[in-house]
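Bench log, entry 3. Co-assembly request; chain sequences pasted below exactly as received.
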Amino acid sequence: MDNSPEGLLRSHGLSVTAQRLTVLQTITDYPHITADQAAEVARKKIGAISRQSVYDTLNTLVEKGLARRIQPMDSPALFEDRVGDNHHHLVCRSCGIVEDVDCSTGYRPCLQASDDNNFIIDEAEVTYWGLCPKCQPKSTKSQAKQTPTRKAKS
Amino acid sequence: MDNSPEGLLRSHGLSVTAQRLTVLQTITDYPHITADQAAEVARKKIGAISRQSVYDTLNTLVEKGLARRIQPMDSPALFEDRVGDNHHHLVCRSCGIVEDVDCSTGYRPCLQASDDNNFIIDEAEVTYWGLCPKCQPKSTKSQAKQTPTRKAKS
DNA sequence: ATCATTATTTGGACATAGTCCAAAATTGTG
DNA sequence: CACAATTTTGGACTATGTCCAAATAATGAT
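Structure output for the full assembly:
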């Protein structure tokens, strides 16, 4: 019933602290944020929070199923509060921006591997790689002037 | 025409060195190996090789398309020499072992995301998560006795 | 409201994976 | 063979994250 952030924490057996509320709010405001970026944002909101506390909180939220961690190659872990729907991600090879994408085939796409090697599969994680609109070479214009926040491959 | 490891390196504009040959051989022998493990193996073969050299070689091989790098969550980068077929991977959540799986739908599976957010998508990377045969709880027997080489989630 | 208990937070040290850099060694070339 | 270009080496450094014990804050019971 209680859908507030406080209720969410309590219903998962967690005590309510300013740090947790702030970190929770932060990943809601900025999905796909890194731990260190989240710490920065949180500090602006409540003045001070230790790095360790941000890591702890994020790990706890993931454990309790209140947050999801993804980790595209060449990127530190990213956190988002969209959970429970097994959506996928689209990552720009140039600037690293991440967008959500829904499952293409409706539900649990690709969960049947062609040969499961006798594994018990519980999740198919799909990462689409490409170039975001901003990083795409513009038709005739020069394509050299970008400000990559991430090392471009190749 | 020259299909030897030496020819492979030369045809990609790389000079042939003992270090490169050894690292190349190593990822062929041990697909899904980490850089540090590859260094260990390589040292057994040729006596000595610097850590940096292994990293350099692996990066070069990936750049030249002679190797592929994958990076499952909570794992250092893994290297394999199977390239050019965009196959996928099956990862055990308990012991971390990685197996190859072919594309379920034949070619470029899932490459059509439901909504591409105007990205130009060039690859769909699929990681299947689950439990390998060895790590699966056996029917009625105790399920506590495993030797996890990787921190189990939960 | 206050106290005791338990959970959380903090800061500092540590670990791991990987990169940067300049000097030394090796490879390919004329 | 000798020279130029490439590669290798080792040491310092960076980034991301974890471990630990002490200090602090939150919760539950008076």
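Residues 14-15, 17, 19-20, 49-53, 56-57 of chain A lie near DNA strand C (CB under 10 Å from a C1'). Chain A is about 30% helix and 20% strand.
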